[in-house]
């Protein structure tokens, strides 16, 4: 993996707040205090935990309540997600960042809903992966001025080889850059590996030496969710989802679903969320 493309490119460091939360250990009050000390982050966390994604029966009124009811790991994942967006707010890129974050958020919400529908028990991991899986896109877009056009060309490939098009043009691709960011941010290994492999789906699912069903499940959920939110249109401006056409049977087969089940799943997710975001 060549490093030249990332030389001089800003990869945001893990925010200090994450280290402060980690140092608080299991002290719920101190963790809530650390989060509340950043008004922007705490407001974003409150907005997220009270969104349809969590489906809570009653609104959460404070960060303390969120930490107690949702647990430390869950809240910290939300904080990381909020900080990812804010850490890139001031960087100059060649893509529409508002559109990018909207698409990432949509994939995250749908991924968690798919996990709930399939009873996979990976809803929080799926949400985090949805937000971070394309984090390498703005990293590369800082340096590559025509990256938006390269992304469109990638999604337009009939063979569905998105990262191959990127590598051909710039010697790097967003899955590798995103993996680098997740390691800098010390995200769980499961998330990092899912980011790294999210455009190598058939190889991942067919590789019997990879004995990690959670990794394969997460990546499968991510891909079906990308298709549901029409990411190929929103990010790649493509007429159809060429990648999904290639990997569809492998993904559905791994999840134990038929093509009819896929339609029912999308209907159930849409009903739960009040529509696909």
TrEMBL record:
InterPro entries: HDOD (IPR013976), RNase_Y/CdgJ (IPR052340). It comes from the Bacteria. PROSITE patterns: HDOD. Residues 7-201 form the HDOD domain. This is HDOD domain-containing protein.
């Amino acid at each position: 993996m060549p490093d030249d493309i990332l030389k001089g490119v800003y990869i945001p460091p893990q925010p200090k707040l994450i280290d402060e939360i980690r140092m608080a250990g299991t002290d719920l009050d101190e963790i809530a205090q650390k989060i509340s000390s950043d008004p922007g982050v705490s407001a974003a966390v409150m907005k997220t935990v009270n969104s349809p994604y969590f489906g809570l029966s009653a609104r959460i009124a404070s960060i303390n309540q969120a930490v107690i009811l949702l647990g430390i790991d869950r809240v910290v994942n939300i904080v990381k997600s909020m900080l990812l967006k804010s850490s890139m707010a001031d960087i100059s890129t060649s893509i529409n960042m508002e559109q990018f974050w909207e698409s990432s958020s949509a994939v995250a919400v749908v991924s968690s809903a798919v996990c709930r529908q399939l009873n996979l028990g990976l809803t929080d991991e799926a949400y985090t992966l949805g937000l971070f899986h394309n984090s390498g896109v703005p990293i590369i877009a800082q340096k590559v001025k025509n990256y938006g056009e390269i992304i469109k060309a990638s999604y337009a490939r009939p063979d569905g080889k998105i990262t191959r098009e990127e590598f051909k043009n710039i010697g790097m691709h967003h899955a590798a850059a995103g993996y680098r960011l997740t390691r800098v941010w010390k995200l769980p290994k499961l998330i990092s590996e899912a980011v790294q492999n999210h455009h190598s789906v058939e190889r991942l699912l067919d590789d019997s030496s990879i004995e990690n069903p959670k990794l394969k499940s997460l990546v499968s959920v991510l891909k079906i969710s990308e298709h549901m939110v029409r990411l190929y249109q929103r990010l790649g401006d493509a007429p159809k989802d060429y990648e999904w056409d290639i990997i569809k049977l492998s993904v559905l087969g791994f999840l134990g679903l038929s093509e009819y089940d896929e339609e029912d799943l999308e209907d159930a997710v849409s009903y739960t969320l009040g529509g696909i975001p």
